[in-house]
Amino acid sequence: MKIRKVIILPIVCGLLAITAPVYAAESAADTNMQILLDKVKADKKLVVAANMNLNDAQSKAFWPIYDAYQKDLMKINERTAKMISNYADAYNSGAMTDKQAQTLIHEALAIEASEVAMHKSYAAKLGKVLPARVVARYLQIENKIRAAIRFEMADKIPLVP
Q: How far is 23 from 148, CA to CA, in rounded Å?
């Protein structure tokens, strides 16, 4: 029941691409980004499916909640991408002000709080239709994927000057 690194690495790279700010000037670039987004979502779903070991009844209850969770997670990813873009703008300007830093701190903490609240909400929803150990397994899988993404982002984002 291992989460395979071979499958996770492309997902992490893809999710990083999604969370990174991308400003496409042409519709072809927008289409390519949508294709990448669709591929990452499908790959992540394969990783989850391969590691959940759901029976038919559990699967029927799980996947609609999973899809709703991913939709809400995308909103958090979009907030994170905007925050990173704002940080990049401030960082690249050469002089980040204390006010800019305070705004970034506030938003980073608000994003974390939103993510924790979302986890609690979905853990409760899943807990109504699945055994606790199955819910725990799913939360572990999500946590491992998010931890890998956070590690990659932390590695790539320079410290505040």
A: 25
Task: Please report, in angstroms and rounded to a whole number, the separation of the first and last CA atoms in the chain.
Answer: 43
Q: What pLDDT score does 36 carry? A: 66
What sign results for the dihedral spanned by CA atoms 143, 105, 87, 156?
A: negative
**Structural tokens at position 112:** 């974390």
User: What DSSP letter does each residue of 24-88 carry, written as one string?
Assistant: -SSHHHHHHHHHHHHHHHHHHHHHHHHHH---HHHHHHHHHHHHHHHHHHHHHHHHHHHHHHHHH
**Single pTM value for the model:** 0.77
- Mean pLDDT highest for which of 3-12, 41-50, 123-132? 123-132
